[in-house]
Write a structure and sequence with these properties.
By secondary structure, the chain is an alpha+beta fold. It has 2 domains: 89 residues, no CATH class; 57 residues. The protein contains 4 helices and 4 strands; from the N terminus they run αβααβββα. Strands 1, 2, 3 and 4 form a 4-stranded antiparallel sheet that branches. A hairpin with a 6-residue loop joins strand 2 and strand 3. The chain starts with a helix and ends with a helix. The N terminus is likely disordered. InterPro entries: CD36_fam. GO terms for molecular function: scavenger receptor activity. This is Sensory neuron membrane protein 2. Plays an olfactory role that is not restricted to pheromone sensitivity. It is found in: Cell membrane.
């Protein structure tokens, strides 16, 4: 009957050992959060956006609070009781990482180098063309002066 009067499951998901929930962790002894072990992490290859490793760690907690109709709970401090935590992860094997490196990343790096090389060659040719055109206009005016004075 009590469950029907207070609908909704009093389950709260947090990071393991209540990482990042300092206020609630103060009411529970024995928790030692470590971001290296208890945080959610994803390692992504920067050129292609391919996830190389991922780890999702979640803790299920029972939410405790005083419920006025139940007199035995009137002295309860609003807190969590850890029930369990789940660690799920995936990591690409070396064969797949090598495939991504050789077939995608290496090609993108080469294309980027070709892009900047072509840009530099084009800029050099443009500057050389300006120098040649400036030299030609000087030659033309000298030739014209000789023709008119002759």
């Amino acid at each position: 009957m009590l469950f029907f009067k207070f609908p909704g499951a009093p389950i709260v998901l947090t990071k393991p050992h209540l990482l990042g929930a300092d206020y609630y962790r103060q009411f529970i002894n024995g928790l030692s959060p470590d971001p290296e072990k208890h945080d959610i992490e994803v390692l992504v290859e920067p050129h292609t956006g391919t996830p190389l490793t991922a780890a999702s760690r979640v803790q299920f907690n029972q939410f405790l609070r005083a419920m006025p109709p139940v007199t035995i709970t009137e002295n309860l401090v609003q807190s969590f009781v850890p029930i369990m935590w789940v660690d799920e992860g995936i990591e690409l094997n070396d064969e797949l990482v090598d495939y991504i490196w050789t077939s995608l990343t290496q090609i993108l790096i080469i294309l980027d180098a070709v892009h900047w090389t072509l840009f530099a060659v084009g800029l050099t040719l443009f500057v050389a063309m300006l120098i040649v055109l400036k030299g030609l206009t000087k030659l033309d005016t000298r030739c014209l002066i000789k023709i008119y004075h002759a």
